[in-house]
Design goal:
seven-stranded mixed β-sheet, Rossmann fold, 12 helices, globular, alpha/beta, 290 residues, 18% strand
């Protein structure tokens, strides 16, 4: 019997169904990303060449990647990178993977900070460096500091700054955020953060892919998820320039009232909540008075 010839679109459709059976929510996207990686191409190119038959070597390479995904490894760790804003970021296992919704922090910075600013700008809990690197791209005259507590995260963020060719303006420090804020003599024209904010009790309910591959310390922060943010909010206020904004991501509507109150109590003005594309409370912003 002649072996089946798999085309690009055949494989995408079959793998999407298989991933769905295995409970993978982003089945189609994951199939596309893994196949594009196996073929050393782009997702757009896959559909331009949808009828292209795969070589046996290509098919075997893709099957190995799909097996890793079904076993619980996230796509970003399988392929070693994740696209965010205008760059692609290295994401080795053990480093927090950038999420698309976090791009709203960059969008807010661009809309509310002069593009000509010399900064300095600051990002706390930087992970792979997606926010400090993206800020450096958007503010070409500014120096940016990223603060990341884990050695692997800090090293990865430095690599990503180099890959984006902004390493001369981006400094990545391995430090705890509050300790850094306590001792820095600088004030900043914008501060961002995607801190840990998941309540401890929710950790066992998170997707297995997250629990197996991403550092718990980058996700959870106390009983209600707000232990670090309770300390960050007043500490950041002290290092903001007059009129400068602090923008940070958080878990969702259950945390909104507490965070809005903490921002007001700390002295921020123009405090606002922003929803993500799914309509979920996702980011809070506020500025130090002029």
């Amino acid at each position: 019997m002649t072996a089946k010839t798999w085309t690009v679109i055949d494989l995408i459709l079959w793998t999407t169904g298989y991933f769905k059976q295995k409970g993978i929510q982003s089945a189609r996207l994951d199939a596309e990303l893994l196949l594009a990686f196996a073929l050393d191409t782009t997702r757009v190119r896959l559909y331009m060449e949808s009828d292209k038959p795969l070589l046996e070597s290509e098919l075997q390479a893709f099957k190995a990647l799909a097996k890793e995904r079904v076993e619980g490894k996230c796509v970003a760790h399988i392929v070693g990178k994740r696209d965010f804003w205008k760059s692609s970021f290295l994401t080795p296992p053990g480093v927090f993977v950038p999420r698309p919704e976090t791009e709203a922090v960059v969008e807010f910075a661009v809309a509310n900070t002069p593009r000509s600013t010399a900064g300095p700008l600051l990002d706390l809990c930087s992970g792979s460096g997606n926010l400090p690197v993206s800020l450096a791209i958007e503010f070409p005259s500014a120096r940016v500091t990223g603060v990341e507590i884990t050695p692997l995260g800090a090293a990865t963020a430095r690599q990503n700054a180099t890959l984006a060719q902004v390493q001369e303006r981006v400094e990545i420090l391995q430090a705890e955020a509050i300790e850094y804020l306590t001792h820095t003599p600088d004030t900043f024209a914008f501060v961002s953060s995607n801190p840990p904010y998941v309540p401890e009790a929710e950790w066992p309910t998170l997707d297995l892919t997250i629990r197996k591959n991403e550092p718990k310390s980058a996700l959870t922060s106390g009983v209600d998820g707000l232990d670090l943010l309770r300390r960050l909010i007043p500490a950041v206020f002290r290092v903001l320039m007059p009129g400068a904004f602090f923008a940070f991501e958080y878990s969702g509507p259950s945390q909104t009232p507490t965070l809005l109150e903490l921002m007001t109590q700390a002295g921020y003005q123009s405090v606002a909540m922003h929803r993500d594309l799914a309509g979920i409370d996702r980011m809070i912003t506020g500025k130090r008075p002029d």
